[in-house]
């Protein structure tokens, strides 16, 4: 059996791959597409991969390398993958795109490697080309969670040549999405001769599929009035997640735009340098003929991607403005809450001060009552002590108390005792202060005495010199003589006094 076009699906699935999570959004199963009449499905014996590649070398063939889900590895071993690339003579640059298919916990947020292109030359003539690239897109998933969209990617390797009258194409599609797989069937069924179809048509179909616009926002609750919108820190966190998603989408759109630009350059280069035999005979497509139609379709895809990127950038700018607004509202809300707390604390402080004032007034009132009672008790205590000394007389008719004639003492003595008691209390309370006052007054008197004693000597010495000192000595000696005479007079007086006393006796 001679194959003109075939679809080869590599169904090698390691046992350790995780279960599928998002193969189909509705039924949880992988969708199966009916093949067009132009393709033949081949279930290869992986031990005879080299023989199958050799048999289908001059045909339109597609190799699918699947994965169970977007987080799983590709369903192929390293040895089998290297054997496939070697048998199909794929350039080694295609290995750079396999890094994104490693086991991961979340979708990668980095741009894929740029598109690689290499013309196939023989005798200074271009008979074909080879390219490899990776497309990233946003796809709706059935995973539970808040975000219903996920970033996906798939790798494409295409080798096209026309050494003979019948051109051949080799496609290797790794991690192809379920939305993109039907493109191959539509391409094969829409072309009269799949070999004579323009090799760039399928690239355009892939770009059209992956450049679909994803809805990045959901309508809010319309029952909530517009003027009653509450914001909190969770809204700011949600906006941050949406901002990251939009930034990733912009990155994907930029990568897709670069891929389209490379395809445009590649198409122009191929149209100018390829021989006229295979290209001018039958380039027919579903939307026009000739290389101008392909160029127009690529430019249309480029314009759509640029438009989507501008919309995403505008949405990102509005989102950043909304973040700034919510951040300002949160700051004002925190300030308002702080003012409310300060007002509450001020009110509590005033209430506490009022309670303390009432408590102090009550304590002062009780202290005043205690002082009055103490004074009354003190007065009656003195009266009681005085009354105990009053004379009592007993008659035959009964006991009768008779006061002495000095009855005024009963009223005078309590007053004196009360004053004496208050004096003792005042002295006891102010004892330390009175002691300090007496000590300070004594020190002041001593300082004044020494000052008076030293002042005349300094004046005489300064005014008269040595003569002043001698006169000072004379004054001192005179004072001593007066002191001696005074002492003798005192002794004489004492002696005469004693004698007079003796005579009197």
Provide tags for this entry.
single chain, 505 residues, alpha/beta, seven-stranded mixed beta sheet, two-stranded antiparallel sheet, 11 strands, 54% helix, CorA-like_dom, membrane, transmembrane helix, transmembrane, CorA-like transporter domain-containing protein
Structure description:
Residues 54-164 form the CorA-like transporter domain. Keywords: Membrane, Transmembrane, Transmembrane helix. The strands form three sheets. This protein has a seven-stranded mixed beta sheet, covered by helices on one side. Strands 8-9 form a two-stranded antiparallel ribbon. A two-stranded antiparallel ribbon has the order 10-11. β4 and β5 (125-140) form a beta hairpin. The chain is 54% helix and 13% strand. It has ten helices and eleven strands. It has two domains: 5-215 and 233-338, no CATH class; 428-504, no CATH class. The relative contact order is 0.06. The protein is rod-shaped and about 165 Å long.
Topology, element by element:
Layout: E1 5-10, E2 40-42, H1 49-55, E3 60-65, H2 78-88, E4 116-122, E5 125-140, E6 149-161, E7 168-174, H3 181-190, H4 201-210, H5 233-273, H6 276-279, E8 284-285, E9 288-289, H7 291-387, E10 393-395, E11 398-400, H8 409-429, H9 431-464, H10 466-504
Parallel strand pairs: 1-2, 1-3, 3-7
Antiparallel strand pairs: 4-5, 5-6, 6-7, 8-9, 10-11
Helix pairs in contact: 1-2, 4-7, 5-7, 7-8, 9-10
Biased composition (Basic and acidic residues): 15-35, 460-488
Protein name: CorA-like transporter domain-containing protein
Region (Disordered): 15-38, 456-505
């Amino acid at each position: 059996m001679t194959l003109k076009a075939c679809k080869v699906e590599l169904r090698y699935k390691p046992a350790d791959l995780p279960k599928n999570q998002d193969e189909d959004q509705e039924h949880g199963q992988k969708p199966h597409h009916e093949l067009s009449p132009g393709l033949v499905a081949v279930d290869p014996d992986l031990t005879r991969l080299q023989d199958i590649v050799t048999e289908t070398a001059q045909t339109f063939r597609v190799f699918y390398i699947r994965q169970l889900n977007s987080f799983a590895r590709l369903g192929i071993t390293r040895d089998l993958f290297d054997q496939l690339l070697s048998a199909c003579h794929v350039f080694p640059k295609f290995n750079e795109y396999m890094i994104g298919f490693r086991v991961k916990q979340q979708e990668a947020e980095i741009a894929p490697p740029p598109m690689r292109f290499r013309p196939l030359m023989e005798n200074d003539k271009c008979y074909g080309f080879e390219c490899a690239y990776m497309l990233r897109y946003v796809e709706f998933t059935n995973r539970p969670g808040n975000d219903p969209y996920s970033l996906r990617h798939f790798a494409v390797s295409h080798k096209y040549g026309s050494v003979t009258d019948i051109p051949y194409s080799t496609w290797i599609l790794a991690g192809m999405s379920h939305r993109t797989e039907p493109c191959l069937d539509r391409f094969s069924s829409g072309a009269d001769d799949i070999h004579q179809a323009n090799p760039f048509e399928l690239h355009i179909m892939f770009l059209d599929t992956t450049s679909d616009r994803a809805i990045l926002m959901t309508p809010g609750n319309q029952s909530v009035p517009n003027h009653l919108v509450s914001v909190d820190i969770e809204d700011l966190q949600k906006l941050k997640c949406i901002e990251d998603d939009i930034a990733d989408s912009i990155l994907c759109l930029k990568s897709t735009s670069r891929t389209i630009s490379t395809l445009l350059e590649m198409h122009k280069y191929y149209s100018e340098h390829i021989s006229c035999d295979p290209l001018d005979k039958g380039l027919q497509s579903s939307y026009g003929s000739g290389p101008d139609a392909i160029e127009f379709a690529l430019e249309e895809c480029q314009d759509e991607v640029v438009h989507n990127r501008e919309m995403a950038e505008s949405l990102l700018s509005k989102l950043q403005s909304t973040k700034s607004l919510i951040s300002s509202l949160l700051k004002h809300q925190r300030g308002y809450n702080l003012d409310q707390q300060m007002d509450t604390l001020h009110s509590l402080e005033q209430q506490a001060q009022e309670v303390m004032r009432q408590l102090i007034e009550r304590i002062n009132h009780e202290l005043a009552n205690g002082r009055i009672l103490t004074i009354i008790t003190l007065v009656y205590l003195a009266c009681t002590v005085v009354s105990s000394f009053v004379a009592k007389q007993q008659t035959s008719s009964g006991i009768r108390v008779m006061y002495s004639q000095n009855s005024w003492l009963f009223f005078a003595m309590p007053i004196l005792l009360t004053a004496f008691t208050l004096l003792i209390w005042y002295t006891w309370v102010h004892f330390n202060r009175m002691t300090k006052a007496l000590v300070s007054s004594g020190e002041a008197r001593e300082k004044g005495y020494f000052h008076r004693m030293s002042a005349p000597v300094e004046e005489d010495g300064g005014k008269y010199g040595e003569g002043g000192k001698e006169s000072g000595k004379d004054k001192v000696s005179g004072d001593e003589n007066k002191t001696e005479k005074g002492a003798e007079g005192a002794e004489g007086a004492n002696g005469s006094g004693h004698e007079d006393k003796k005579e009197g006796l």
